[in-house]
Amino acid sequence: MVTTIEEGNQVEHESGYDRQRELKLLDDSKAGVKGLVDAGFSKIPRIFIHDNLSTSSSSTKKNDSIPVFDLGSLHEQGSSRHELIEKVKDACEKWGFFQVVNHDIPQCVLDEMLDGVKREFYSRDTSRTVYYNTNFDFYTTPGGLNWRDTLSCVLAPRPLDPHLLPSICRDIIIKYADYVKKLGLVLFELLSEALGLNPNYLKDIDCAEGLFMVNHYYPPCPEPELTLGISGHWDSGFLTVLLQDQVGGLQIFYENQWTDITPVPGALIINLGQMMQLITNNKFVSSKHRVLAQKIGPRVSVACFFREHFQPETSSKVYGPIKELVTKKNPAVYKDITVKDFITRHYAKGQDGVPALEHFKL
């Protein structure tokens, strides 16, 4: 069977399926998934079909157990801060995910950020500071592509020239990033204390130095049962701050089943990346998660990853299990590696269902 991209529908033939030709047709169009929807596709091209796909999720009871924390308690006197740290510690050890409210980012900024996500600057050069494309592992993933387009930008440690950003979302991206950087410092303090370390520990080893933003746009899908918005994967950095709209579709793989994370108005989702699992020597976990494709939409999300992104001055920095967390009973699980080692591995393997962290075990 061959899918003819130009016609907007799957066309069956007896001849073999030319996957590379279909990939190139879509890539050369530079229109992304949104371009397919705008062209009136009633069926998704074969390159987006995921074999043996199950989109079931766990019960409502388990869904409700996703932790939601009120950061307003940080400003209160007494035991509130200690209680919050203990709850964050528990969430990081069990889930690797939690949500936060009262995070000091105004609702109007969150709304404007979601409204500003647009498509621009199609490119597959991930060393650029700003680029737009469909699926970062477009040519390397062994399975179906994901039903989404992404605008990516590197915001730190080197300041981004605002003129490199699309004019329609330039101001709000810079404004939102400033808020996220401040929130990141608060979160890294909480995580440091939850690990039994000095509050500034993670900040002092530069976990908050890099910031990489991806703006995901998920067009409505005519056949959501055949594909995914994002395949199951683990984030690569130390910490992710995720802003999503109210459409839903995000799931975490918890206790051997996919569990829905229902959007909470005004909340931000916080999840740990594999670099955090590495430096904490598996004390904190990075959990597999995915996004379902849906007929309703579009769905929009903004993920801010605290990590470096191929900058020469930072990507050679070495990280390994934190010495204070390594003992005879709990020896180091991972090698000392550079950020460049990890990000290169992450991009080369694509979202193949295996965490990049496995490659760096001792």
From TrEMBL:
Record keywords: Iron, Metal-binding, Oxidoreductase
Transmembrane helix listed as a keyword: no
PROSITE patterns: FE2OG_OXY
Lineage: superkingdom: Eukaryota
Residue span, Fe2OG dioxygenase domain: 207-308
SUPFAM superfamilies to which the protein is assigned, alphabetical: Clavaminate synthase-like
Family annotation (InterPro entries): DIOX_N, IPNS-like_FE2OG_OXY, IPNS-like_sf, Oxoglu/Fe-dep_dioxygenase_dom
Family annotation (PANTHER family): 1-AMINOCYCLOPROPANE-1-CARBOXYLATE OXIDASE HOMOLOG 1-LIKE, OXIDOREDUCTASE, 2OG-FE II OXYGENASE FAMILY PROTEIN
Family to which the UniProt record says this protein belongs: Belongs to the iron/ascorbate-dependent oxidoreductase family.
Protein's recorded name: Fe2OG dioxygenase domain-containing protein
Native organism: Stylosanthes scabra
